[in-house]
Amino acid sequence: xxxxxxxxxxxxxLYPGAPEDIALSGAYLAxxxxxxxxxxxxxxxxxxxxxxxxxxxxRDPATGESxxxxxxxxxxxxxxFLELQAQADCLVTHGGYLCDLAAGRLDDVLQIGTQAAxxxxxxxxxxxxxxxxxxxxxxxxxxxxxxxxxxxxHGQRVILATGAWAPAERVAHWRRAGYEVLVAGAGASVxxxxxxxxxxxxxxxxxxxxxxxxxxxxxxxxRVLSRLYLTTAHRLLGGESFHTxxxxxxxxxxxxxxxxxxxxxxxxPDDAGQFFAHFEPLPALS
Length: 286
What we know:
eleven-stranded mixed β-sheet, three-stranded antiparallel β-sheet, 14 strands, 21% helix
């Protein structure tokens, strides 16, 4: 839920240019991400919120369940998250999120502008020629998850993406249920480059990744990530079991990023402050 202060909050832009005080509300809408891509080259973007020691989630050693620490949560960050959603032709999520959603561990964030405080974002989509709600893309190797009813209630198109090794009976199950299932990977998992090509061929030009480290990794390795948004909360979390933005093999040159902008939020969360930054990958080295 949006905190009321998020709509009136101010940010200090630190880079580029001279420091400048700006409104938080609308700061990411101004990027106009829906205009940056094309069917042949969709604009693919991801966002994360992390602590100073690099944690994006903590894992309970006893149950294995992961959670977003309260110390990383703020209404200001959530407002900017929703502004990124509002510019998307499609949201890419994963089967694990749908399982957590069904279990009540996470909130449903697959729709835009359904609350009174976010009606402006729904209107923004209409004013900018986007569909009322984005397409939902579910990436999953095993295709074993419950489908929430919210996409159907809001008239959203749903596409399931998987790899070539997906269980044939699960593929058949979802197709019988009326869902489009596309193969975007030669193995078990979805490959970033293949997924982006498939979605672009379906007219989806702005693709927002609501996924985790595995999808970020494949998008970077396949050189199809256009922009990374990172909120850094100014606190240390510690913890013996945790998640970070990446957990696979070394990325090498595919991990080279250039800072495009940096903003400082002095108050949230919990008066500790946070940075809002976004980066773009550098071209491959010859």
